[in-house]
Specification:
By secondary structure, the protein is mainly beta. Helices cover 12% and strands 43% of the residues.
């Protein structure tokens, strides 16, 4: 090689080396798949090739991780179907298979066989092979979807509608301006429960949500723009119950409390226990005796919780009013075979119906101020 060309070639090699090392590395399929699968993991979907040894379910991710197919067996002698999840956009195909009047007895059996490409899944349906092209299953047709939308609230400033929709084949919360523009999906989950309202300061939406990492629907708070979705119950709160199942009973009229129920252990077995949960900052406290099975009925006009329990001493029902903030109880009425009907039109009393020894219906008016209970004529309405 001529000596005068050596420095030039060395310089060119250095330029090529610098150019190559300055470019970002191309993600390997494994890295890209993991990144795509993260969305399904957040939904609580298994993101590996996995199968229940007893045949109840299996999961199979696509080669690039954009999709995960989940197969399930419905009942001990039931049908088999599949659900496909789009991990990047967090959408669902909805159930494929088991069409019929009663799915567990349906002959429409569907099994996922294997992915033949990033977008194509080979299945068998009614024992016949068939290829599903994924993009076809994740086109949102808004015409029928809008017909199922349900407005659940207005934002405190009156500018936004909050509505639930299944347009992505999963029940989610969305927001839009009053003219229907600027639609934004707010939640990404496999389950959405009741929408209760707003925190007293108007900064938080309160609703039940399946966050995939806890059991069942549990109350959460979230800002209007979908940010800072946070559980209201801590892991310690969940440990209060001997059961892993919690229920949200009601949202207080002053928006300060949620009433929660879970089973607790007592000398007589499992007993439903009622708790209060602060809004928006949480803080769980037991409201009812864990040895007595209380039932929530309604909120009184003055904002107290009406509950009842069986009184073993009097062999009858005891209806009590509970000030949730102070946890103070007041007996409203007690007796045998009492049935709460409604609050009076003047918002000062509760109407109860009972049957006397002769089987006749007797109406009782119980005053909220505790001044007494008296028989009254049957209300006009």
């Amino acid at each position: 090689m001529p000596k005068h060309l050596a420095p030039l070639l060395l310089g060119l090699a250095s330029i090529v080396l610098v150019a190559q090392t300055s470019l970002p590395p191309t993600p390997t399929p494994t890295v890209q798949q993991a990144a795509n699968l993260n969305g399904c993991a957040e939904l609580g979907i298994a993101t590996i090739n996995d199968a229940d040894p007893y045949g109840w379910g299996y999961t199979m991710p696509s080669p690039d991780g954009t999709y995960v197919v989940q197969g399930q067996h419905l009942g001990s002698h039931g049908c088999h179907n599949i659900i496909i999840y789009q991990c990047v956009t967090k959408q669902s195909s909805g159930a494929i298979g088991c069409d019929g009047v009663f799915p567990p007895e349906s002959q429409d059996l569907v099994f996922a066989t294997n992915w033949v490409s990033n977008d194509d899944l080979l299945i068998t349906r009614l024992n016949k092979p068939q290829t599903l092209h994924m993009p076809d299953y994740f086109k949102v047709d808004l015409s029928p979807a809008k017909g199922m939308d349900k407005v659940v609230s207005l934002s405190p400033d009156g500018q936004w509608q909050i509505f639930s929709s299944g347009r992505d084949k999963m029940s989610e919360l969305y927001r839009q301006l009053l003219d229907g523009s600027h639609v934004q999906r707010l939640t990404y989950s496999r389950g959405l429960g009741n929408f209760y309202g707003w925190s007293p300061d108007g900064k938080w939406m309160i609703f039940d949500y399946d966050d995939a990492h806890r059991y069942g629907l549990l109350p959460v708070r979230m800002h209007l723009d979908g940010s800072e979705l946070q559980p209201l119950m801590t892991d310690n709160d969940l440990g209060y119950s001997d059961s892993s199942i919690w229920y949200t009973l009601a949202f207080s009229p002053d928006s300060r409390w949620l009433l929660m129920q879970a089973d607790g252990a007592s000398s007589s077995g499992s007993v439903p226990v009622i708790y209060r949960l602060g809004v928006p900052d949480g803080g769980l406290m037991r409201l009812t005796d864990p040895n007595v099975a209380y039932k929530f009925v309604d909120w009184s006009p003055d904002g107290r919780a009406l509950v009842w329990h069986w009184n073993a001493n009097t062999r009858g029902l005891a209806f009590e009013l509970v000030d949730v903030a102070t946890m103070k109880y007041s007996l409203l009425v007690a007796g045998d075979a009492l049935e709460f009907q409604r609050w009076t039109d003047d918002h000062k009393a509760a109407l109860f119906l009972r049957h006397n020894a002769q089987g006749n219906a007797v109406w009782n008016r119980a005053e909220l101020d505790g001044s007494g209970v008296k028989e009254v004529e049957r209300p006009a309405s």
